[in-house]
Amino acid sequence: MDFKILKNNRDLVYTSLLSFYITHSPFYSGEAWRCYFCKSDVSWDHCVENRRVDICKSPLNRCTKFFWEYEHENGTVVQLYEKGCGYHFECDSCSRHECALEKSRKCEVNCCLADLCNNGPTSRINTPLLWVTVLATVTRIVFKSNG
To answer: pLDDT for 92-105, tens place per residue?
Structure first.
């Protein structure tokens, strides 16, 4: 590999990385995630059986999965299962108003940043962002060791 060529094209590489990151960012206005949407008070399986695909429009910029267990006024335990589009600040269970209620027993929030990423039992990592991070790290190491 000719490191001289890489060194001479440093600006091009950084510009390409930045451009890729911006266009794959959930804040990019041209990007709209498709997320699964469903609600159930029975189970995740019941939720999935009745799901549909929604297009998340700004400012909803995450696919979410939300589980909430609480004690009803009559003493019965209720469980809610929900998938859909959400705000970035809802990705922390402390930010969901349901989780802060005294009657809450269990509250789980999962968020992800890719098309239909809220499908399985756990949310998927943002693969394009992972690759940008890896590529940026390797590029930095190469430039640092030759510069």
So the answer is: 777 777 888 888 89
Cβ atoms of 113 and 26 within 8 Å: the answer is yes
Stated pTM of the model: 0.60
The radius of gyration computed from the CA coordinates of the chain, to the nearest angstrom, equals 21
Q: In this prediction, what percent of the chain has a pLDDT beyond 70? A: 61
Closest C-alpha to 65, from 124, 127, 123: 123
Element spanning 98, H or E:
helix 97-100
Domain of 67 in residue numbering reads as 3-145
How many structural domains does the chain have? Answer: 1
User: Quick one: the chain helix, strand, coil %, rounded to 5?
Assistant: 40, 25, 35
CA distance 113 to 138: 23
Cβ atoms 144, 137 nearer than 8 A: no
Give me the CATH number covering residue 15: 2.10.60.10
